[in-house]
Sequence to fold (153 residues):
Amino acid sequence: RNGEAFEGGADQYLSILTKEILPEAEKHVMGPPSWRGIAGYSLAGLFALYSLFRTDAFSRAASMSGSLWYPGFTEYVRSNTPSSRPDCVYLSIGDKESRTKNPVLQTVLKDTEDIRDHFLKMGTDTIFQMEAGNHFVNEKERIISGLCWLLKR
Fold:
């Protein structure tokens, strides 16, 4: 509300994540992973989906209460192709998230549904869950639901 605008930095962070963090983390597992997923809540949910378009490092993504209202993001999804078609995408928001006085945030339901439809048209196993409450309700449970869905695919 009264914070600084956020923009930029996603590509730099994604580079660190894929070139430094993932290789280091995967040194500690037995053999190469059969798949990699990326998940996030709020802005991290936006980043998770954005990542699919910037790298083929992830084949699964979950965006819980994702900031998919971000100006221009739905159009970005429509006009770009993921680095590789994701196996599955999980989307969720709270049923009260679009009920806000902020006109930018009011679009989150439509934007999330449009992005769901886009991935479904691509043939990606995609689900959209409407959860009870606003953006700040049951965050842990929503994250767990998204991660469990990815793991069960």
About this structure: The mean pLDDT is 93. The radius of gyration is 15 Å. The first helix runs from residue 10 to 26. The helical segments are 10-26, 43-54, 73-79, 108-122, 139-152.
